[in-house]
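Lab notebook, bench 4. Still working through the backlog of constructs that have no structural model yet. Next entry is a single chain of 162 residues. Request: give me the structure tokens for it.
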Amino acid sequence: MEKEISATINLPSGENYNLHLSLLHSILPQQSSFKILSTKVEINMKKTDAIRWEKLEGEGQQSNIKHFDPHQYPLSSHPSSYKWDKMVVDISEEEKNEKLEGDAALNKLFQQIYADGSDEVKRAMNKSFMESDGTVLSTNWGDVGKKKVEMKPPDNVEFKKY
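Model written out:
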């Protein structure tokens, strides 16, 4: 284990560049490496401990070191003091008690009918809506299942297919 690194690099100009670093924490020199490229020198150092270094150099001061334990579960897996199930129930209650107006209220009504409906009701709603290009919405599978649902636009409206 070492806490210092030294390197001497011969520059193209013929000069030598000396690098000496006193590292904040220890490294494993046997598992460290370097690469000399045309524009830079890369030095990869293997840490002895799986901790986050606040900075590269230092005189042995121990800052707030946070050790990383790869076997520790993330915080989300620990039992929380916050009751998420209760929060879901509360939000559902708020949505049920919410007073909507206009199109939003109508859409909520249709969604409620669909959600609470049987498979036949859902099938009838899907078939009638699709075959009529959105102009008919029926919950009666007995009527809808027998024939193609014709388009019925509102009074005084002409339907144009694009």
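Notes after review: The chain has four helices and three strands. The beta strands are 2-10, 16-36, 41-47. Flag for follow-up if needed.
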